[in-house]
Amino acid sequence: MRSIQVNYLRRETLVDANDAICSAIARLPIFKHYQI
Q1: Is residue 26 part of a domain?
Q2: Which of 2, 4, 24, 36 is 20 to 30 A from 13, comparing alpha carbons?
Q3: Is the pTM of this model over 0.85?
Q4: 30 versus 6: which is more confidently predicted?
């Protein structure tokens, strides 16, 4: 667990993951119906 935390749970990887999730949500067909 320690090596996973050190290697993957960094600010940069969390930001990249968040960007990927936000981009995927923005591509959903229903997204255009919401004013976020």
Answers
A1: yes
A2: 36
A3: no
A4: 30
